[in-house]
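Notebook entry, structure prediction.
Reason for the run: the old model in the group folder had no record of what sequence produced it. Starting over properly, with the input documented here first.
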Amino acid sequence: MRLKKKIKALLATTMFVFVAAPMTAQDIIAFQAPIDRKMKAVDTVTLRSITEREMTTNPSAKLYSEWSNKYAHRATELPDSFRIDLRKFCMPTTSRVITSNFGRRWGRMHKGLDIKVYIGDTIRAAFSGKVRIVRYEAKGYGNYVVIRHNNGLETIYGHMSKHLVNENQNVQAGDPIGLGGNTGRSTGSHLHFETRLCGVALNPALMFDFRNQDVTDDYYVFRRNSHDRESDMANRLRGKNAGKSEASYDRGTYAQTQPDNQEQQASRQTSFGGDVRYHKVATGETLYSIARKRGVSIERLCRLNHIGKNMRVKVGQILRYS
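New structure, fully documented this time:
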């Protein structure tokens, strides 16, 4: 009797397990469904939030509609103005020597700066971004790298002896991307460095001061209608031979503190050869101290720059004084 009871109890338990198992699974699925829907909705909101945040912190997404590894640069429509964030930068090289400026050279446009480096010197990414092209071009850049940055710029590094990155690789500002060299169309070891916006070359001297190993400001505002004029000014201040020009500005010849009369202005125009000269405002300087240093009157300084006598100048501001 006891054996029969035990067998019946075992059969009853087994039957209960087989019957209850599907019901439990059904209950779990039914219970999980609304949770899955909620999580999907959360994921969608999160994804949208991340996308919007990237669009805000990544201006390049607004400028470039595609990602292409085919062309080093392909000019598209430039905005009338665009603010470029220069913070969190790294100088591409520690060299302070510029051997060739941006602009007309040998009957053609030179669309970057040439910086003296030696074969094997480390070349670094100027800003964080993503490597778009790693290639060799025998009749041009030689071994070169193109990086698209979050701030909207693309930088090109040419004539390197070796690549240290791959296409589609994410890099941080300061990461090594190659070694200095003399490959491609080059007459000596150097770095050819370009800064481009929408595929159009901008003068790197507008943003990078290689002599002082620094950027020119936290932000650079590109304006299409004034780029060429600003580029010429940048070459005078930070390009090849700029150090010699600046030294000549500081000679005691210009320590004139009296207001200019017409004869003095004419004499000064002759001694300058009619060149337009500029001064970069340093810490602690005022219109008065700048006028005294450059040997011009405050009236002339204000007239040349279309400003008032009471205006407070800012560090890094460029003022014309002749």
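Summary: The helical segments are 2-57, 60-63, 227-238, 242-249, 262-272, 287-294, 298-305.
The old model has been moved to the deprecated folder.
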